[in-house]
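Late entry, evening session. Most of the bench is empty. Finally got around to the prediction I had been postponing all week. Sequence below, unchanged from the version circulated by S.P.
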Amino acid sequence: MESPPLRQSPFQQRPTEPMPIYEYNCQACGQQSAHFFRTFAAAEADEASLRCSACAGPLQRRLSKPTLLHSEQMRLSALGDAQSLNALEAEEPRAMAQLLRQVGGALGEPLDGEMGEIVGRLAAGESPAAVGATLPDPAPTP
């Protein structure tokens, strides 16, 4: 007997478009708050019904740049353009350094310490093989 198909939980669905976060001030008590919306359309539709969590007063959107949440899939797919991947296959050191910086930025990871040194050497045009030859062997995993 064939089992029924598994349903994907709405919590597992990944967004395919940016999700805005807006900041608000309460018009009654002045408290600041931030509200997350699934889409820009939802932000426009739901904004009038927002109330202050402290006093239930009306909220006024602050004039600030909206923050956008991007899924990991969106951030990484933006990095995988054909030109970058072709440069990696050709082992072009400057292109590798640029892609490593982009990946670090997209993941919010600073390129410091040993990784910063590697990226700097690649950006200076040193071959990936020469950079790799000077790296210590990775520690064995238990």
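Two things to note before I forget:
The longest helix spans residues 93-107.
The radius of gyration is 23 Å.
Will write this up properly tomorrow.
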